[in-house]
Amino acid sequence: MDKLIEALGAPVSSGIVALLTWWLATRARNRQDQEREREALRGHADALIVAVADLRAAGTANQMLWGRWPNAAGPCC
């Protein structure tokens, strides 16, 4: 009986180690994927912030440029 327990002990413990290794590897891979997604989202957010800032700057420049000149529909002098 002791030999049977010893014979089954090695495969069972190896199976437990293999299962734990698989679980840890899967968890680490999922964390890496999540981190990549976060970095991509941060990159998109930064690009959006820059685009909005560019549009605001263009709008401000347009308002400054056209706001000084008399309106074509309004009085001339």
Task: Provide structural commentary.
This protein is mainly alpha-helical and 77 residues long. Helix content is 87%, strand content 0%. It contains 1 helix and no strands. It has one helix spanning 2-68. The radius of gyration is 33 Å and the shape is rod-shaped. The protein starts with a helix and ends in a 9-residue tail after the last helix. The mean pLDDT is 86.
Question: Brief description of this entry?
Answer:
The protein is an all-alpha fold and 77 residues long. It has one helix at 2-68. It is built from 1 helix and no strands.
Question: Spans with pLDDT under 50 lasting ≥5 residues?
Answer: none
Q: Would you list the SSEs in sequence order as H and E? A: H
CA(first)-CA(last) distance: 112 Å
Average pLDDT: 86
The radius of gyration computed from the alpha-carbon positions, rounded to a whole number of angstroms, is: 33 Å
The assigned structural class equals mainly alpha
Bin the helical content: over 70%
